[in-house]
Amino acid sequence: MTTLNILIGGPAGSGIESAGQILGQALNRSGASVVVTNEIMSQIRGGHNFNKVRFSYEENVFAHEWDVDIVMALDRMSVSEHLDEIKDGGLFVFDEGINVDDLISDDLKTRGIEFLPIKLEATIKELGSDIYKNVLMIGIILGLTGIDPI
Question: Is 73:9 a contact under the CB 8 Å cutoff?
Answer without folding.
Answer: yes
